[in-house]
Backbone:
């Protein structure tokens, strides 16, 4: 707990200085729906976020996926909605007037008059109502339906609409999606390339804030035909869960089918900072055609995303349901569920191998017959790799696999007690299992007085359900060191640091015993581990936060550098840019002894960059006689439930330089205001309300005593004008106001100046 709180404070210290330059203009995306698609398809994606003004581009990492920005909807306020309501009312009056006038009036109109009727919205003339008027009215009504005065989460209420195209040969698996604005690059979101046919539910509108005691007023009112969707196996389902909702999918299955139902939810959006307990907790349930629950799952091992493996007992109809465990929901509670006779790995053994040697782990899971695994090559450098199995062209779920330089062995039973240990020679990595509940594995090694020994477990970080506990004893059974959990700041989204670690100085020459077991006294063939027993392997890893920078012309931005020191390494680490692109530079900085965080200032002498550029930050240190160089992994500092912070790794560190004085050309230019007699909208309004307008004009022209009245007061104060003009410009450039309405409202503002 102490180290977690320290991370929160240290991360905040690194975050705040970077805010003016690196984060102030940085766009943010909170969700993408759907969060992926099938190879060889083109589909629409809806993004929710903030600071998304003038989104120019969307990019997906890796080859074979392209994204095109279609439209951007900023969050509207009450004043903008009032303007839209007034515009909609005028359009309805105009179309009603035109309809009543019918053919004679239409015959007298010129082509130019017909075009003015659409007031910049496009279209042409017809024998009746101009279709561009009705199209504009429909567009306004769509925006009004999407409006929520108090959204459940304001930080995801601005919307961007994309068209995404995935090539047929695009590599399946997880990618990263970002958007680019003239002033910055967004955070990355997980985006998946799938292989199965997909179905996507209609996107939710922005969820309303729930008020205590009036929660039912904020619930979504969806049609009954959206509650249950029929699918054909195999399939990937994309959906969003609203508050209190259950999404159901009906399908036919045959007896003997070995179905796997796997969910991506928390893996898409690991943390939701302003929701308790801090994330979407999906639950899966499978029912027969009579509504009887057959199987239920709310997590997979220690992971919160559920997985169901089910052998179909008989031919028939089945229904799969998904919902949040405490029935919360909003538009960023998104999921991808894949169902079918899919290859699925539940465990690997061993979970790693030695660099330079052939690696062929054994798989356990479902539908893996005839599947072949793709382990790292002999040339793979030390690290953790994601590997999959392939069966009939279908890729399985990815599994982590560790590669290390140290010698490796397998544990050999019986080795359960101090009197019958397995003898090992240091340094070594033991690949073993806690085979059964309450099992212990004991390893004996020879040590020397005043030498340091490290005992470390890799299990949970490699997707093993083992919650390890380790201890070191001498020959008499005296406990010299003990550890249950040890936090690893490089573990990304992990919420339970269940792997164990300690470093201890041996008190005397002799034999020592390393014991490993499961804290909860659980065990089984999937409770695998990698146990390292060695002298300290001094090393470090780096994280660069955030994963994108925004720089003004000829300016600077700072990036926080977190050092993860390993096996007690306390020496200095030099931080610098590696092979900076033209126009970029950074003065090297040094992390002093024991220091774990610093800031690197990145400078650019460019006026702007047309596209984001990739930066690489490295750290170097002399450890013993070796010069060690490690590349900093870009990361996002994300909060979990108000307190705990996590450094979520990203693929690239991107930088964008922008000119703060640059003003993009207007998206739409108002036509000069035409004479009133040729303006259809004005004519229509005059025709419809001529009597009432005349009466109003007469009343305004004379007072009670028959004398001329004073000029009417302006509708707005001078302090309100600037805000009003911005609102009008925003709506006009989005194509939601006609030229004439825009001119009319601007004139009201000019009258106040």
Residues:
């Amino acid at each position: 707990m102490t180290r977690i709180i320290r991370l929160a404070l240290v991360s905040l210290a690194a975050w705040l200085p970077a805010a003016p330059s690196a984060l102030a203009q940085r766009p943010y995306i909170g969700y993408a729906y759907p969060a992926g698609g099938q190879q060889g398809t083109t589909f629409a994606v809806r993004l929710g976020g903030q600071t998304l003004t003038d989104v120019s581009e969307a990019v997906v990492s890796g080859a074979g996926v392209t994204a095109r920005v279609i439209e951007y909807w900023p969050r509207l306020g009450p004043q903008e909605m009032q303007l839209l309501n007034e515009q909609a009312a005028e359009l309805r009056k105009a179309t009603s007037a035109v309809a009543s006038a019918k053919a004679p009036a239409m015959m007298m109109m010129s082509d130019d008059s017909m075009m003015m009727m659409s007031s910049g919205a496009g279209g042409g003339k017809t024998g009746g109502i101009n279709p561009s008027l009705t199209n504009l009215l429909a567009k306004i009504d769509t925006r009004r339906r999407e409006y929520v005065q108090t959204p459940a989460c304001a930080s995801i209420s601005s919307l961007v609409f994309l068209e995404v195209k995935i090539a047929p040969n695009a590599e399946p698996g997880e990618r990263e999606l970002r958007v680019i604005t003239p002033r910055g690059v967004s955070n990355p979101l997980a985006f998946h390339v799938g292989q199965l046919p997909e179905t996507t539910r209609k996107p939710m509108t922005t969820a309303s804030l729930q008020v205590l005691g009036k929660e039912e007023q904020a619930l979504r009112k969806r049609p009954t035909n959206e509650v249950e969707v029929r699918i054909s196996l195999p399939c990937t389902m994309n959906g969003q869960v609203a508050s209190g909702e259950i999404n159901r999918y009906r399908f036919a299955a045959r007896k003997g089918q070995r179905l796997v139902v796997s969910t991506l939810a928390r893996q898409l959006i690991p943390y939701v900072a302003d929701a308790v307990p801090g994330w979407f907790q999906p639950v899966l349930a499978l029912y027969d055609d009579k509504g009887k629950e057959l199987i239920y799952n709310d997590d997979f091992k220690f992971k919160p995303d559920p997985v169901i493996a089910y052998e179909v007992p008989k031919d028939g109809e089945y229904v799969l349901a998904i919902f949040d465990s405490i029935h919360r929901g909003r538009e960023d509670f998104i999921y991808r569920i894949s169902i079918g006779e899919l290859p699925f790995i539940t465990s690997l053994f061993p979970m790693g191998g030695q660099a330079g040697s052939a690696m062929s782990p054994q798989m356990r899971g479902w539908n893996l017959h005839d599947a072949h695994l793709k382990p790292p090559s002999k040339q793979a450098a030390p690290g953790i790799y994601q590997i999959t199995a392939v069966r009939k062209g279908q890729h399985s779920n990815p599994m982590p696999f560790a590669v290390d330089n140290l010698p490796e062995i397998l544990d050999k039973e019986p080795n359960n007690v101090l009197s019958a240990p397995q003898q090992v020679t240091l340094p070594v990595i033991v690949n073993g299992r806690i085979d059964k509940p309450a099992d212990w594995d004991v390893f004996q090694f020879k040590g020397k007085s005043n030498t340091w020994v490290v005992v470390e477990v890799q299990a949970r970080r490699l997707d093993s359900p083992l919650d390890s506990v380790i201890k070191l004893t001498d020959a008499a059974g005296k406990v010299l060191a003990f550890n249950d959990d040890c936090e690893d700041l490089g573990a990304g989204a992990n919420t339970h640091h269940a792997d164990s670690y300690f470093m201890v100085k041996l008190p005397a020459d002799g034999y020592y015993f390393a014991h490993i077991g499961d804290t909860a006294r659980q065990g089984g063939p999937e409770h695998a581990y990698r146990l390292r027993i060695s002298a300290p392997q001094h090393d470090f890893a780096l994280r660069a936060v955030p994963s994108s920078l925004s720089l003004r012309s000829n300016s600077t931005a700072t990036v926080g550098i977190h050092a993860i020191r390993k096996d007690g390494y306390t020496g200095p680490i030099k931080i610098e840019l590696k092979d900076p692109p033209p126009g970029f530079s950074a003065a090297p900085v040094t992390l002093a002894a024991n220091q774990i965080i610093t800031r690197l200032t990145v400078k650019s002498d460019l006026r702007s960059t047309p596209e984001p550029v990739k930066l690489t930050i490295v750290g170097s240190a002399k450890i013993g006689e070796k010069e060690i160089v490690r590349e900093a992994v870009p990361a996002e500092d994300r909060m979990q439930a108000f307190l705990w912070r996590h450094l979520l790794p990203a693929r690239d560190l991107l930088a964008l330089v922008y000119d703060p004085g640059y003003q993009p050309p207007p998206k739409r230019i108002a036509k000069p205001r035409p004479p009133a007699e040729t303006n259809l909208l004005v004519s229509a309004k005059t025709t419809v309300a001529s009597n009432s307008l005349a009466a109003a004009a007469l009343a305004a022209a004379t007072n009670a005593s028959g004398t001329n009245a004073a000029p009417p007061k302006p509708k707005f104060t001078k302090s309100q004008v600037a805000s009003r003009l911005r609102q009008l410009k925003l709506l006009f450039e989005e194509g939601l106001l006609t030229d004439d309405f825009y001119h009319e409202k601007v004139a009201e503002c000019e009258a106040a100046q």
Observations:
- Residues 1-23, 105-127, 677-706 have pLDDT under 50 and may be disordered.
- The radius of gyration is 32 Å.
- The first strand starts at residue 28 and ends at 33.
- The chain is about 15% helix and 40% strand.
